[in-house]
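User: Just a sanity check before I run the rest of the batch. Below are the structure tokens for the first item. I only need the designed sequence back.
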């Protein structure tokens, strides 16, 4: 497969994913002209240079630059879950008036909510504060597009509701000392570096962290230890 064929394969992938529809869409995202994009896709050697392909890969981060230039490795930079009709998020918490829809992967930052391929328990909050870290892609699924972020869950303390490897939708709680809902699931970070996903019981000055898996013990902590709290509003079963 030559460079022109690889570029056209990447373009067809982007069209299939709904990221672009036309040569003009590619040009707009790249900051190029439609004429140059069309010429490159048609195999014009003066246009389809290494510099052009690098710009293309930088604009569409899911496309591997080594593959585009030299056919090294796979076309996609990351192994991404295949979202289809089976990948409908499980609603957690109050599910009234929620219409579940299949999730889809998006590489348009204007569509969906960022997904970071890291588990909450392994320091997700630290990564989220790092402005140099980009999401793997966006997850587009109503009504979860109102959440703040998607990330991975790890461990089995919340089985069977949340399994290790599931992808969870998080919405930050701005005032966790007064706005926690008893029985709902939260992802919690404390000042003493506890990171956990549990159901919550609000006791006033303290909260009790309750696992769904009865092999694990409940834990009570003081609200003064709460650093970051996210409500877990949805869960994608990735198996």
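Assistant: Here's the designed sequence for the first item:
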């Amino acid at each position: 497969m030559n460079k022109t064929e690889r570029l056209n394969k990447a373009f067809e992938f982007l069209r299939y994913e709904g990221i672009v529809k036309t040569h003009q869409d590619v040009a707009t995202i790249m900051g190029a002209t439609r004429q140059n994009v069309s010429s490159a896709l048609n195999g014009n050697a003066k246009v389809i240079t290494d510099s052009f392909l690098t710009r293309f890969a930088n604009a569409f981060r899911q496309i591997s630059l080594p593959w585009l230039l030299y056919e090294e490795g796979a076309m996609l930079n990351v192994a991404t879950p295949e979202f289809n009709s089976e990948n409908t998020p499980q609603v957690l918490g109050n599910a009234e008036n929620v219409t579940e829809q299949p999730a889809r992967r998006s590489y348009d930052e204007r569509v969906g909510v960022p997904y970071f391929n890291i588990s909450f328990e392994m320091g997700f909050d630290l990564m989220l504060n790092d402005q140099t870290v980009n999401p793997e892609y966006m997850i587009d699924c109503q009504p979860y597009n109102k959440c703040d972020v998607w990330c991975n869950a790890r461990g089995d303390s919340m089985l069977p509701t949340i399994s290790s490897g599931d992808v969870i939708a998080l919405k930050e709680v701005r005032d966790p000392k007064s706005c926690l809902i008893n029985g709902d699931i939260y992802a919690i970070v404390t000042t003493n570096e506890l990171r956990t996903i549990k159901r919550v019981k609000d006791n006033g000055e303290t909260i009790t962290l309750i696992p769904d898996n009865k092999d694990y013990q409940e834990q009570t902590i003081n609200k003064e230890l709460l650093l970051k709290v996210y409500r877990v509003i949805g869960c994608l079963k990735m198996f």
